[in-house]
Amino acid sequence: MKKGNEGPLRAFALVGTIGVELAASVIFGFWAGRQIDSWLKTEPWFMLAGLLFGLALGITGIFFLIKQFFGE
After folding, report:
1. CB 47 within 8 A of CB 33
2. What is the pLDDT of residue 69?
3. Residue among 70, 67, 49, 61 nearest 24 (CA)
4. Whose CB among 7, 11, 46, 64 lies 3.0–4.6 Å from 36's, allowing a Cys bridge?
5. With left for phi above 0 and alpha for psi between -120 and 50, is residue 71 left, alpha or beta?
6. Which of 24, 12, 15 has its CA nearest to residue 58?
7. Residue 40 and residue 16: Cα distance in Å, rounded?
8. What are the φ/ψ torsions at residue 43 (nearest 5 degrees)?
9. Rounded to whole angstroms, what are the CA distances from 43 to 34, 47, 55?
């Protein structure tokens, strides 16, 4: 592969990884919160906490991913 083609392909890979990482962390936080809520009968509090925790975890992961991508 030529060096000139590496930039756009890496950018597409970065965008795809960002989407998957954010979606997976939010979905997992939501699912885990729902499971805890059904176990403790506290609907919707742990679901909301899990959703927010998953969102925060996803944003943090994206921050480190972008930091690694740009090499800083």
Report:
1. yes
2. 86
3. 61
4. 46
5. left
6. 24
7. 36
8. -50, 140
9. 8, 7, 19
